[in-house]
Specification:
Helix content: 25-40%
Number of domains: 2
Strand order of the largest sheet: 3-2-1-9-10-18
Number of strands: 18
Oligomer: single chain
Strand content: 25-35%
CATH class of the largest domain: Alpha Beta
Structural class: alpha+beta
CATH superfamily of the largest domain: ATPase, nucleotide binding domain
Length: about 325
Amino acid sequence: MSWFSNKLGIDLGTANTLVYVPKRGIVLNEPSVVAVSEEDHRILAIGLEAKNMIGRTPDSIIAYRPMKDGVIADYKVTEAMLRYYMDKAMGKWTFSKPEVVVSVPAGVTSTERRAVIEAAIKAGAKNAYVVKEPILAAIGAGIPIYDPVGYMIVDIGGGTTDVAVISLGGIVASTSVKCDKSAEDLKIKIGSAIPLDEELSAIVKGRDFISGLPRSVEIKTNEIVKAISKELRDMIKAIKDVLQETPPELSSDIIDRGIIMTGGSSMLRNFPELVFRRTGVKATLAKDPLYCVARGTGIVLEHLNTFKKSIIAKR
């Protein structure tokens, strides 16, 4: 772990938290999960260890995600989680407090932004800055956000999908929609945004809802297509809504340059093709889409003066 740097970028997600150290890259990628004792609310485990407890713990232990829809649902537990990730990334022999950039969804309120700042400071940050996820995703995807040109970014995270048009360093039009992270591994492994002629399949093990007994079933691609169709329709509607809000001059830029897709769920098979079919605008996946927001936090940290217009809250 890097204890040489006193700067950390944190992609604080509903599903996973990634920590980026400038010049070293991503040093941590763990589930945003905390295991708590129900009796005295003592924190027992954080991250991967806590995730492994989900569904396997006695009634006296609760394993859950303190982030909901990309914002803090449980302040004290989120603070403890941030402290754990910061300590793990910095190394326990580091005594200087780090400067921290934290990502937040585009639609968060000023109160929610302040909560993130306060949690980061209490977790041990010297200074904390908050930047909206679509801006960070665009920076991490290599988009020159300060150009007088319109770019559309679709960032599909664990709890929210952010759709934004960015120009001259700011968000011109945007919306956020909630999205379901359930069975995410299965969706990426065999799922698709459009039906396939040659389906993939996987064996899923679990408990039969009716009999209560353990059972294995085979799931095929087009079953997943059907199961996630509403979720995908909501995302496409969000993209169309933002396109309709976008000034004509910037719309022509987006038609020329296409839509850039980031976030883990953007890697769903044939997703860019579905976006093109429904909107008529070409869509492409950014390089390493899962890491764009985290990479963006690192770039902002290295060039704080350059990106100071994009910082929406700081302390």
